[in-house]
Design goal:
By secondary structure, the protein is α+β, with helices and mostly antiparallel strands. The chain folds into two domains: about 5-170, Jelly Rolls, CATH 2.60.120; about 175-285, Arc Repressor Mutant, subunit A, CATH 1.10.10.60. The chain is about 40% helix and about 15% strand. It is built from nine helices and ten strands. It has helices spanning about 120-135, 145-160, 175-185, 205-210, 215-225, 230-250, 255-260, 265-275, 280-285; strands spanning about 15-20, 30, 35-40, 45-50, 55, 60-65, 70-75, 80-85, 115, 165-170. The strands form two sheets. It has a five-stranded antiparallel β-sheet, covered by helices on one side. Strands 2-7-4-5-10 form a five-stranded antiparallel β-sheet, with no helix packed on it. A hairpin with a 4-residue loop joins strand 4 (about 45-50) and strand 5. Helix 3 (about 175-185) packs across helix 5 (about 215-225). The longest helix is centred in the last third of the chain and has 19 residues, at about 230-250.
C-alpha cells in the first residue's frame, strides 16, 4: 500500500502523519510527483533505488525527492514513526533564492538521503514531528510559517549527521530495474494540469542524472527492455500529452509548447507535425 495514495488529493500543501496510522505492506512506491517527503522510520525494512538499496535496521530519517523513484520493503511487522509531505514552497531558500533541493540539502539529486539516528537524535526528531502534528491541527493563522521552520530544523539536523548508510547492489536484471524507474519517472510528469506547469525532465541526460546512472547505460537498458530508444519513449509520451491538451483544453499553442518544454512554438509545431502528420492547429480542429 502506498502511503501517499491513502492521503486525500486535496489535503493542501502540507500534512503530517504517524506511520502506524497507515497500512504498511511491502514495496510501497512514492507516486506523487509534486510532493517532498520526510520520514522518521521506526521499523526494519529495505529501501530500494534504481540501482542500489540500503537495509534499515535502526531508527532512520529519510528524505524523499518527488523526482527520484524508490521502493520500501517492510520487514518487521511493526512500523512506527512519522512522515510529512509538502510542496517545494516549504523548502528553505538560500541567498540566491534557490531552494536547498537544488543546492546542499538531503533532497539534492545524488545526495545521501537516509541518516541513522542515535537515541538522543531520534528523541529530538520525534519531538519535532509531534510539534508539527500539534501545530497542523491548530487554527493558528501563521501555522504554515511554523511548519516551515520545523522542516528546516529536520533538514539541518540531517546536515549535522555524518552519512552512515551502507548501500548494496541488488537484483538480477539491472536493465529491467533501470527501465522501470525511467518509465515511472517519465509518467510522474503527467498529466499537465496548468499552463504554468512545465516538464522538468525533457532529455535522456535529465533522466540519467536523476537516476544516478550514465546516459549511455540508461539508453542501452531502455532499448534492451522496450525495443525503443529513450528519446523515442520520451517523444511518444510528450506526443500523447500534446494531443490531450489540444483536444481537452483551450490553451493556445504557445502555452502548450511551453508546458511541454519547447523553447519556441515553432519547434513544437515541427515536432508534432513530424509525429502526427498534422499541425497542432489542424489536429485541434478534429475535436468533435
Amino acid at each position: 500500500m502506498n502511503y501517499l495514495k491513502q492521503i486525500p488529493a486535496n489535503f493542501g500543501s502540507f500534512n503530517v502523519y504517524r506511520r502506524n496510522e497507515f497500512t504498511c505492506k511491502n514495496y510501497m512506491v512514492s507516486h506523487r510527483r509534486d510532493f517532498y517527503k520526510i520520514s522518521l522510520i521506526k521499523g526494519q525494512g529495505k529501501l530500494y533505488y534504481a540501482n542500489r538499496g540500503v537495509e534499515v535496521n535502526a531508527n532512520a530519517l529519510l528524505f524523499s525527492n518527488p523526482m527520484v523513484p524508490y521502493k520500501w520493503e517492510a520487514i518487521s511487522e511493526k512500523q512506527d514513526g512519522y512522515f510529512c509531505v509538502f510542496k517545494e514552497g516549504f523548502l528553505p531558500q538560500n541567498s540566491q533564492n534557490k531552494s536547498f533541493e537544488a543546492t546542499e540539502s538531503p533532497f539534492k539529486i545524488g545526495a545521501d538521503s537516509i541518516f541513522f539516528l542515535e537515541p538522543a537524535q531520534q528523541a529530538y526528531v520525534s519531538n519535532l514531528f509531534e510539534q508539527m502534528l500539534t501545530e497542523n491541527a491548530s487554527d493558528y493563522i501563521h501555522k504554515h510559517e511554523l511548519l516551515k521552520n520545523y522542516i528546516h530544523l529536520l533538514i539541518h539536523e540531517a546536515l549535522k549527521i555524518r552519512p552512515n548508510a551502507r548501500y548494496f547492489k541488488y537484483g538480477s536484471n539491472a536493465s529491467e530495474r533501470i527501465t522501470h524507474c525511467f518509465i515511472e519517472l517519465l509518467s510522474r510528469q503527467f498529466p499537465i494540469d496548468s499552463p504554468e506547469q512545465q516538464l522538468r525532465l525533457k532529455a535522456p541526460t535529465d533522466f540519467a542524472q536523476h537516476l544516478s546512472v550514465h546516459v549511455n547505460y540508461l539508453n542501452r537498458s531502455v532499448k534492451e527492455i522496450t525495443g525503443k530508444t529513450t528519446s523515442e519513449m520520451i517523444a511518444q509520451r510528450v506526443t500523447e500529452e500534446a494531443k490531450a491538451l489540444l483536444l481537452h483544453t483551450n490553451w493556445n499553442i504557445a502555452e502548450i509548447a511551453f508546458c511541454l518544454g519547447f523553447p519556441e512554438p515553432a519547434y513544437f509545431s515541427n515536432f508534432f507535425k513530424k509525429r502526427v502528420a498534422k499541425t497542432p492547429g489542424q489536429y485541434r480542429k478534429t475535436k468533435v
